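Quarterly update from the structural biology core.
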Amino acid sequence: MKLKWILEIILTLRNKTRLLICAGVAVILLSAAATHTFAQSPQRSSLTLPPAQAPTTLPAAPTPDEPEAPATIFPHSESSRFWISGQGNFIFQAHGTFPAAYSGTNSLKDTPEADVSDLLTLYTGVEISPTTEFLFDVESTGGHGLSDALGLAGFTNLDVVRNPDLGSTPYIARAMLHKVVSLSSDTIPNERGPLGLLTTLPARRLEFRFGKFSLVDFFDVNSPGSDSHLQFLNWTVDNNGAYDYAADTRGYTFAAMAEYDDRAWSVRFAEALMPKVANGINLDFDPARARSENAEFELRRNFLPRRAGVVRVLTYVNHADMGSYREAINAYLAGTDPVPDVTRHRQQGRIKYGFGGNFEQALTGWLTAFGRWGWDEGANESFAYTEVNGTIQLGAGASGSLWRRKQDRAGAVFITNGISGDHQRYLALGGLGFLLGDGGLRYGRENIVETYYTAHLWRGVFVSVDLQHINNPGYNRDRGPVLVPGFRTHFDF
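Predicted structure, tokenized:
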């Protein structure tokens, strides 16, 4: 019966007209929330961050003033072998006219526009044994995003699929077998949720995952800045922009992953499939021809007295049929190509590699600082995620416990993104990437400031306001700045 209710609600929320009605009701409820605290459900929510990672993400026991886990509309058993839940994420964004000396094929439109995206997920799972589980999720996305998600390296909405021709047909997002091998007799509690059903885990263990999932379910996770459902929205905030992680257009891949966890540190490695073409929906199922290696080390300790902290170091190597920016430039200058076209200079087996750093540090019981740094080699084309070769971000996330609304949250962040010299010259000469291409380029780093506030209304119902200010959109000093306000309604079932 619960599954039927979830499906009916998700289908109802699919209608954007009803979404606008829900948004109006949410605004009324938010006004009421300022003077009244709604009843909290005792059940834990289904967060987008993997619950199996919770012990590694939070290195110390929670303090009493930390935010409670968000509620869900329907309660979920802590003992059943089966899991059924769902979520709906609806985002409205717009921008007005902004200065632009010129525009090209892949430019962010300099005239007013607005878009509503929706992301619906049905999570299911079964606990096969106390150490083995199978997870299966079905997802649907709608909305094209501002300018069809073109013109920004740090695009404003992570929920948007970068291929508007795919439509909203449901698809399998995850189909994953998860096996835990105990290496110690002592155990630690684990928060149950859609990405992990086991309620306890060995303190020392090996974990294996096989199947379809997103690499950023487990790599580059950051508690204050990885969740487009309740936190920030920008691509290069929620993920490391220079991490060109293996994925199809929707962000998923087939992979095998191994992880070793100890009380104070973890190390994980994954071998994953690459798309056949840049930003492609079809994966190359021949690992001898195209593949991705990903490795991450995570250290958890109190870097400040009695305050939990985490540091992660990431590296990856992608092998694929990638084009060379320099070869495309040289062919254009020699008159061989009428315009620079990196897709005409692809070669199977080219390598793209990069490194990343990721930290989070509790400053008080309600405030956490976080940041990322990333770099990739930049000679070969951006292929799977976004057109960033170097990134730095620094921000802070807060819970509402300071003002007695523990399930509210807020955050602010600054990101600066850059590209390599070859990448700059390619765009300046009129080349197109899968996201960028104004027909010219007066290069400047793409600098973004984002801030948000998420209010918990009732059980699994949340609303958020978001604001992003972007200087030099698409790395172009001849365009922008642009201001993008947004409104989000989120439901956890």
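Residues 4-67 have pLDDT under 50 and may be disordered.
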